[in-house]
Specification:
This protein is an alpha+beta fold. The protein has a single domain, classed as 2-Layer Sandwich (Muramoyl-pentapeptide Carboxypeptidase, domain 2), CATH 3.30.1380. It is built from five helices and four strands; from the N terminus they run H-H-H-E-E-H-H-E-E. Strand 1 and strand 2 form a beta hairpin.
């Protein structure tokens, strides 16, 4: 188990409810800040093409490169990515802490709802459409309503 995994396991021994509350306080803000750093680093105009390029690059980063994913649709108005195997879900489930996975799903939700331009909408295709919430796969759907 990694250093992070050991720390999570130690928290888990405090009791599931308390550990989840503590992890929620840590994972969501830290995860959102890491996303913010990646978006700021690019300093590119917020266009549809730049967003698609950045999303595809993010899929090859160490935190997500092991995920099994497929692009369901890539058009002028819609980008739909489906993750059928998630590293976070696999590791937490294997370690008996599968309840932690939704915290990582929620990071995506929080970041995209705040940081995407107004002409773009992110959703999962329905409530709880992630592995962490028990769906057979994770949906990442970006729809361009108008704009650059």
């Amino acid at each position: 188990m990694t250093g992070v995994g050991s720390a999570v396991a130690a928290l888990w021994r405090l009791g599931q409810e308390r550990a989840l509350a503590l992890m929620r306080e840590i994972v969501t803000p830290v995860g959102v800040r890491l996303f913010e750093r990646d978006f700021r680093r690019e300093r590119l105009p917020r266009t549809w093409e730049n967003l698609l390029r950045l999303l595809e690059e993010m899929g090859d980063r160490p935190t997500t490169r092991w995920n099994v994913k497929e692009v369901v649709e890539r058009s002028e108005r819609r980008y739909h990515l489906r993750v059928t195997w998630c590293m976070y879900h696999a590791v937490f489930t294997r370690e008996g802490m599968g309840e932690l996975t939704p915290l990582f799903c929620d990071v995506d939700e929080r970041f995209f709802e705040v940081h995407l331009p107004g002409w773009l909408r992110f959703h999962r295709g329905g409530p709880g459409h992630t592995l962490g919430y028990g769906h057979p796969y994770c949906e990442f759907i970006f729809e361009r309503e108008q704009g650059p």
